[in-house]
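Encode chain A's predicted structure.
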Amino acid sequence: MKIYTKTGDKGLTSLIGGTRVPKSSLRIECYGTVDELNSYIGLVRDQEVNAARRPMLKEIQDRLFTVGASLASDPDKSKMKIPDLHAEDITLLEQEMDRMNAGLPELRVFVLPGGHQSVSFAHVARCVCRRAERLVIHLQEDSFVAELVVMYLNRLSDYLFVLSRQMAHELQAEEVKWEPRL
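Encoded structure for chain A:
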């Protein structure tokens, strides 16, 4: 099988269901950003500090492929069976956050991204997740998007924040506190 098809050479691509759309469409931007997020999750997963969390991070990557498939489908024309998110996917993120939070010092200030390169990767992933969430909410204004997609992205960005704190704690890295000038 060839990777290149040449069908996108004029700036169009196909959604699942066959509808041709410009590569600049909001729907393409949404699942492209989810794909970017998935790549960053892979980078976070590959950090040595996350060795024990690799199965969880792979699970998140699998769910992001589910999100991408949902976003890549024409909601009006696709007849293909697309994998679904489940409420349990969101519950899993919440349970993991609760577990990590239980061992972390109480957060009383805003923290700046950084303190350790591995922690910074988690913050970049969090920011890309928030961008994906904003784009998907924008898409939802004019087109069908499964409600769980927005919920999952929202919860995932929270998870990535808690993960960054957990990683900093395990790496004994300083949490860089924001000190506003007043």
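DSSP finds five helices and four strands in the chain.
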